[in-house]
Amino acid sequence: MPNPFNETDEQAKARKGRSLAIALGLVVFIILIFVVSIVNMGGAIANRPL
User: Fold this and answer.
1) Category of 48 on φ-ψ map: left (φ > 0), alpha (ψ -120 to 50) or beta
2) Where are the bilayer-spanning segments (predicted)?
3) How far is CA 35 from CA 19, 28, 38, 46, in A?
4) In the predicted model, what is the mean pLDDT of residues 41-45?
């Protein structure tokens, strides 16, 4: 596949690495927000009335 951005293989590899790091950081942030939310609700969340 031709390179539409006219970047070298080294630049493409660096871009992919940055993209992967950003994606991983986003996943970690989402998990952190989820865990903080669950902790903030406390243990009584499982004992709520139906």
Assistant:
1) beta
2) 20-46
3) 24, 11, 5, 15
4) 72
Average pLDDT taken over every residue of the chain: 86
- Is the per-residue pLDDT at 37 higher than 90? no
Measure the CA–CA gap between 50 and 40, rounded to whole angstroms.
21
Tell me the mean pLDDT in the region 14-19: 95
In order of 8, 12, 34, 42, 45, the CA distances from 3 in angstroms are 9, 9, 39, 52, 52
Token pair for 41 = 């609700």
